[in-house]
C-alpha cells in the first residue's frame, strides 16, 4: 500500500534539501508541550542524529512526567531554565524546525530568539489557520497529529529507513495522545497503515500506552475525583459543563505537570454533552489556562479565539485569560450563552 502524498513535488524537493543541507538544527515546539509536541520533536531528533546532524530539542517550559520514558527526553533543554544556552544554540543554528504550532507566539518567551535567528525555518504542523513565519510550511490540518504529518513527510522524501525504533515509538506516542488513543480524529484508514509500519520498526504499542497512561500519581486520581464531585458545573439545558481550579487546590493534591491531562474530556462522556471548558490557575504565572473540548459540529477553536485569547483544533482548543478566576468563570458562562443556538 502506498500512502497518499501530502507534499507537492516542489515541497518534497525543498524539505529534503533543507534537512540534507542543515548541520546545526534546533527543534522547537509549543509551550506546555503535550505528547504530540514531544513525540514529533524527539522523532525528528532521532532521525537527524542518525543522519549525522547536530540536533537539539528546545521546549519553552516543563513537559509532563509521563513522557519522560522516551529516549532522548533527558536531553531536552527547557528554555525557561536555560535561557543563555538556548539563545546560543539558536544563534548557531542553520535550521530551526517548528513542530506542532501554527504561530510563533505559542513559543512564549522562546519567540524572541526564534525571531532573531538568521537560520532557515521549517514548519511541520497540523493546526488550522497557520501564520506565515517560516521559509517552508508543511501544514496539514486534516491529519490526526503533527507526528502523522512528520511520518508522511519522511515517507514522501524516501527517508523512513532512517527512522529508528525510538523514533517510531515517539511517533506512535504522539499519534496516540493526540487522538485520545485513536478514539477521535482517527477515521482515516491510512492511520492504521502507518501504525503497522511503525510496528515493523519493532515498537511495542501496548507498552507505549502503559508508559503514557499507567504512570499516574495518587494525587492525580484524588484531584480528578475532587473536580468531578465538587467543582464540575453542568449547564444541562445547553449541554455544557465547566470547572475552575485554583493554585491552592492544585497544591492540596500535590499537583505535578500532566496531572490535569485528559480531565477536561471526562464530562464529555455524560450523555448529550457537547462542550466542556476547564479553567486552571497557572502555578508559575499570573494567568488562567483554558482548555475546551467538544464533540460533533461544535467549534471549540472558534470559542477559544472569541473569548479566551486562544485557538486550536475544531474539537480541542485552548487559551489564556489574565484576570481573576471569578471573572474567568463569568467569561465562561458568557461564552456558553453566546453559543446557545448551537448548544440547544
Brief descriptors of the model:
single chain, 344 residues, alpha/beta, inorganic pyrophosphatase (n-terminal core), Diaminopimelate Epimerase, Chain A, domain 1, 2 domains, six-stranded parallel beta sheet, six-stranded mixed beta sheet, 12 strands
Count of alpha and pi helical runs: 13
**How would a crystallographer describe the biggest sheet?**
6 strands, parallel
Average pLDDT confidence is: 96
Unreliable residue stretches:
none
- How do the strands line up in the largest sheet? 3-2-1-4-5-6
Please identify which CATH superfamily of the largest domain we are dealing with: inorganic pyrophosphatase (n-terminal core)
How many structural domains in the coordinates? Answer: 2
Beta content comes to: 15-25%
CATH class of the largest domain: Alpha Beta
Tell me the total number of β-strands: 12
- What is the gyration radius calculated from CA atoms? 20 Å
Assembly context of the chains:
single chain
Helix content: 25-40%
Succession of helices and strands: HEHEEHEHEEHHHHHEEHEEHEEHH
Q: What class, by secondary structure content?
A: alpha/beta
In CATH, the architecture of the largest domain is: Alpha-Beta Complex
Q: Tell me the distance between the termini.
A: 44 Å
Shape: globular
The name CATH uses for the topology of the largest domain is inorganic pyrophosphatase (n-terminal core)
Amino acid at each position: 500500500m502506498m500512502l497518499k502524498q501530502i507534499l507537492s513535488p516542489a515541497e518534497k524537493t525543498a524539505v529534503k534539501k533543507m534537512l540534507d543541507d542543515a548541520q546545526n538544527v534546533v527543534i522547537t515546539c509549543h509551550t506546555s508541550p503535550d505528547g504530540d509536541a514531544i513525540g514529533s520533536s524527539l522523532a525528528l531528533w532521532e532521525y537527524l542524529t542518525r543522519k549525522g546532524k547536530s540536533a537539539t530539542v528546545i521546549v519553552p517550559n516543563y513537559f509532563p512526567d509521563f513522557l519522560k520514558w522516551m529516549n532522548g527526553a533527558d536531553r531536552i533543554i527547557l528554555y525557561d531554565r536555560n535561557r543563555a544556552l538556548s539563545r546560543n544554540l539558536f544563534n548557531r543554528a542553520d535550521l530551526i524546525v517548528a513542530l506542532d504550532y501554527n504561530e510563533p507566539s505559542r513559543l512564549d518567551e522562546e519567540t524572541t530568539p526564534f525571531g532573531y535567528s538568521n537560520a532557515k525555518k521549517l514548519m511541520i504542523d497540523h493546526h488550522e489557520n497557520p501564520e506565515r513565519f517560516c521559509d517552508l510550511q508543511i501544514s496539514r490540518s486534516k491529519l490526526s497529529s503533527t507526528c502523522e504529518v512528520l511520518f508522511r513527510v519522511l515517507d514522501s522524501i524516501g527517508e523512513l529507513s532512517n527512522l529508528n525504533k525510538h523514533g517510531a515509538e515517539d511517533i506512535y506516542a504522539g499519534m496516540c495522545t493526540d487522538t485520545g488513543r485513536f478514539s477521535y480524529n482517527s477515521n482515516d484508514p491510512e492511520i492504521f497503515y502507518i501504525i503497522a509500519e511503525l510496528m515493523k520498526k519493532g515498537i511495542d504499542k501496548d507498552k507505549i500506552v502503559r508508559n503514557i497512561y499507567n504512570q499516574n500519581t495518587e494525587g492525580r486520581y484524588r484531584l480528578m475525583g475532587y473536580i468531578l464531585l465538587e467543582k464540575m458545573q453542568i449547564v444541562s439545558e445547553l449541554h455544557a459543563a465547566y470547572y475552575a481550579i485554583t493554585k491552592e487546590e492544585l497544591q492540596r493534591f500535590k499537583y505535578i505537570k500532566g496531572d490535569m491531562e485528559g480531565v477536561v474530556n471526562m464530562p464529555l462522556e455524560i450523555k448529550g454533552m457537547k462542550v466542556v471548558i476547564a479553567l486552571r490557575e497557572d502555578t508559575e504565572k499570573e494567568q488562567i489556562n483554558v482548555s475546551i473540548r467538544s464533540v460533533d459540529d461544535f467549534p471549540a477553536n472558534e470559542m477559544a479565539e472569541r473569548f479566551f485569547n486562544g485557538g486550536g483544533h475544531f474539537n480541542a482548543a485552548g487559551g489564556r485569560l489574565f484576570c481573576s478566576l471569578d471573572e474567568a468563570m463569568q467569561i465562561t458562562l458568557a461564552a456558553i450563552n453566546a453559543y446557545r443556538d448551537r448548544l440547544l
